[in-house]
Design goal:
The complex is a heterodimer of chains A (345) and B (339).
Chain A: H1 2-19, H2 22-42, E1 51-56, H3 61-68, E2 74-79, H4 82-90, E3 96-99, E4 105-108, H5 113-131, H6 150-180, H7 183-188, H8 194-223, H9 232-253, H10 260-277, H11 292-296, H12 299-311, H13 321-341
Parallel strand pairs in A: 1-2, 1-3
Antiparallel strand pairs in A: 3-4
Helix pairs in contact in A: 1-8, 2-6, 2-8, 3-5, 6-8, 6-9, 6-10, 6-12, 8-9, 9-12, 9-13, 12-13
Chain B: H1 15-20, E1 32-43, E2 46-57, E3 61-65, H2 72-79, E4 87-92, H3 97-107, E5 108-111, H4 123-131, H5 140-146, H6 162-174, E6 180-184, H7 192-207, E7 211-216, H8 219-225, E8 228-233, E9 236-241, H9 243-248, E10 254-260, H10 270-274, E11 279-285, E12 288-293, H11 296-309, E13 314-320, H12 324-332
Parallel strand pairs in B: 3-7, 3-8, 5-6, 6-7
Antiparallel strand pairs in B: 1-2, 1-4, 8-9, 10-12, 10-13, 11-12
Classes of the chains: A mainly alpha (345), B alpha/beta (339).
């Protein structure tokens, strides 16, 4: 009875302390939403953008305009003054500038992808006009459907990153703080069981996890329109596994440090490589093939891969064997090491 | 300005010891709650505790008095099971830490120096958490009342004054309904009023039959609370006994302190002063001279004569009954507190 009571009280204190810390609430619940929203909107699908071209008044302009009508994706503006048109080009308000003549002259900035596209379109329109032929039939299919947009790829990454961040910061800071206050030492002269102490951190983490996932996932689903193809149970299990793994890593990182500064540095050292290389913002397959096996061993890589497979591809937890095993392995390893080296004083 | 009594043989097992029965001999069974024999603790080359012995009888308060860095905290932390001694033997409630850790912890209460509670927890939340660690213990409301925080029970720790925080720390120690309360410098840094409030809490606990082990560098505290005292310096016991007996061991009726107007106190030699009638010893302390005096009236009369004969002018003169501070100064040449 004492045992349960002790765990409940320790956990309650952790939860209460968290909710009395307004900054913590911002970083755990608000910040990820803002990040997902900003990135989601910044990289939203643009559809097929027409090329804007400026045509300067001059002899033979009629022939040019007729030719350009053949391409519906050429958005033509006619300018009286060459200088005015050139200024537009310089500011990238138009993608190319065409002066009639024999041959017509085209000015563009080859470094801009849009300009290169505009050049090709202009050239093709002129070729077609010269041959008097018609466009070779080609059906265009813009890919903007749910599941293949950047935000769909990004969202599971952000979710994973958030599970890592809140788990590690939340627990690492709290442990470093009680140690710095010598509160940990005070607990050591009571009959409190050490396992209850650790368990309280994990249990309180699970309370936040639930709220965090519900808020974030709802936002992703209903605001960003991110797909949830897989089943809820698989999704929950992976989130739970990830949260506990990073809770363990948080305890491990904080197991010896005495100061908040110390724990911050160590946290960043551990998390930075995963932010960059675990495929949060872009696929880790962009790194050289040789290091893929190493990247796949990182806990965040496993978590994000599993989340993407479940959310986007609709797979179940059973198809995520290696990833789940990896997370469980990290979990067991970090807890064992943390318990071994933990500094109570 | 070297003090007269620089090296004093530690009074281990001296006559004071024998009178009060807190020596190293084992007491009669249940009456003894804490036994420490030959405690040694080293930190690298530094010997923090260098062979300390004592016993604490049930229902009494043992004061461990000494200056900062004397080894008080190390000693009490060995008793609390936080530190393992490099030598010697500790028994708490008849049990050893290595064999009955949890059982001892269930039955003692501890206040540590420098514990900082989480600012954003309330008094009740904190007490409830500590209470949950013990199988049996006190009623939380009762503890809140004892430590005088009834009105503050729903307030967060950050709104408490220094004295209230210290009482809360003692409150946390009382939750186990302890048989022994260990207090490490409980009133350090508190103003006199807050200090007195805390003493009342400790006295209430003692009145209920509790045993207290208390470290302090505050002699008034030790004189008021402690039944038995050990005075330690450099990790060794230099005096032991009841506060009265220790003060009596100085063998002085009073202490006379004076200074000379516009003159170096050393114009009067140690020899001259010690041979005055009724004076036992003399010590120079800055611009002051302090005399241990057996017969106060005769000594002051002699002092006046001496000063007049030498053509000096007395600036300031006061006398007081000897205190633990005087004993400590006479044994070590240092004051308990540097401030």
């Amino acid at each position: 009875m004492t045992r349960l009571n002790e765990i409940r009280e320790l956990t309650r204190v952790r939860v209460v302390l968290f909710f009395r810390e307004p900054e913590a609430i911002f970083w755990v619940f608000i910040f990820p939403l803002v990040l997902a929203a900003v990135l989601g909107f910044a990289f939203r699908s643009a559809g097929v953008e027409p090329s804007k071209v400026a045509v300067v008044q001059g002899e033979g302009i009629q022939r040019l305009l007729e030719a350009f009508q053949r391409d519906e994706d050429l958005d033509v503006e006619v300018y009286e003054d060459r200088q005015e048109a050139f200024d537009k080009l310089r500011k990238a308000a138009v993608d190319a500038l065409i002066e009639p003549g024999d041959p017509p002259r085209l000015a563009f900035d080859p470094d801009r992808a849009e300009a290169a596209t505009a050049r090709l379109r202009v050239q093709r329109a002129l070729t077609l006009a010269m041959d008097g032929g018609v466009d070779a039939p080609l059906g265009l299919e813009p890919v903007t459907e749910t599941g293949s947009r950047y935000v769909d790829f990004l969202f599971p990454g952000l979710l994973g990153m958030n599970l890592m961040g809140t788990g590690m910061w939340g627990i690492g800071f709290a442990i470093a703080d009680v140690r710095r206050r010598k509160f940990l030492k005070r607990l050591m002269v009571t009959p409190m069981r050490r396992s209850s102490f650790f368990l309280s951190f994990i249990l309180s983490r699970l309370v936040f996890l639930f709220l965090e996932i519900v808020i974030l996932a709802s936002f992703g689903r209903w605001v960003l329109g991110v797909p949830f193809e897989g089943d809820l149970i698989s999704f929950s299990i992976v989130c739970l596994l990830g949260a506990i793994t990073f809770a363990g890593l948080g305890i491990l990182v904080a197991s010896r440090v005495r100061t908040i500064e110390g724990v911050s540095g160590l946290m960043n050292l551990v998390m930075m490589p995963m932010w960059l290389a675990s495929g949060v913002f872009f696929s880790y397959e962009r790194f050289p093939d040789a290091i893929h096996p190493v990247l796949r061993l990182l806990p965040l890589t496993g978590l994000i891969d599993a989340l993407r497979a479940i959310m986007i591809d609709g797979e179940s937890i059973w198809q995520q064997g290696p990833e789940s095993a990896l997370l469980a392995g990290w979990c067991v390893l970090t807890f064992l090491v943390a318990l071994k080296i933990f500094r109570w004083e | 300005m070297r003090p007269a009594h620089r090296h004093v043989t530690p009074l281990r097992n001296d006559r004071v010891d024998a009178q009060t029965g807190i020596g190293s001999e084992i007491g009669n069974g249940d009456d003894v709650t804490v036994v420490a024999r030959g405690l040694v603790k080293r930190y690298g080359d530094l010997v923090a505790v260098d062979g300390i012995d004592f016993q604490v009888r049930r229902g009494t308060c043992l004061g461990v008095l000494g200056p900062n860095g004397a080894g008080k905290t190390t000693t009490i932390e060995i008793l609390e099971g936080l530190k393992t001694p490099d030598g010697g033997h500790v028994e708490v409630l008849g049990r050893s830490w290595s064999e009955s850790r949890r059982e001892i912890q269930e039955r003692i209460g501890v206040q540590l120096q420098e514990t900082e509670f989480q600012d954003k927890l309330t008094v009740l939340e904190l007490l409830r958490m500590f209470r949950s660690f013990y199988r049996e213990g006190s009623d939380i409301e009762e503890v809140v009342r004892t430590i005088g925080l009834l009105e503050k029970r729903r307030a967060q720790v950050k709104t408490l004054s220094g004295g209230q925080k210290q009482r809360l720390a003692v409150g946390c120690a009382l939750l186990s309904r302890p048989e022994i309360l260990f207090l490490d410098e409980p009133t350090s840094g508190l103003d006199p009023q807050a200090r007195r409030r805390l003493w009342e809490v400790i006295e209430t606990f003692k009145a209920g039959g509790g045993t207290v082990v208390l470290t302090s560098h505050h002699m008034e505290e030790a004189e008021r609370l402690a039944d038995d005292l050990i005075i330690i310096d450099h990790g060794r016991v230099i005096a032991r006994g009841s506060p009265k007996a220790i003060i009596a061991s100085l063998g002085a009726e009073s202490v006379v302190q004076f200074s000379l107007a516009g003159a170096d106190p050393r114009q009067l030699s140690d020899e001259e002063l010690r041979t005055l009638q009724g004076v036992r010893s003399a010590r120079y302390e800055g611009s002051e001279i302090s005399l241990s005096v057996v017969r106060t009236q005769a000594a002051i009369a002699g002092l006046f004569k001496l000063i007049e004969r030498r053509g000096l002018v007395l600036d300031d003169l006061h006398t007081h009954r000897p205190t633990l501070e005087d004993v400590f100064v006479s044994l070590t040449g240092k004051h308990l507190r540097d401030d």
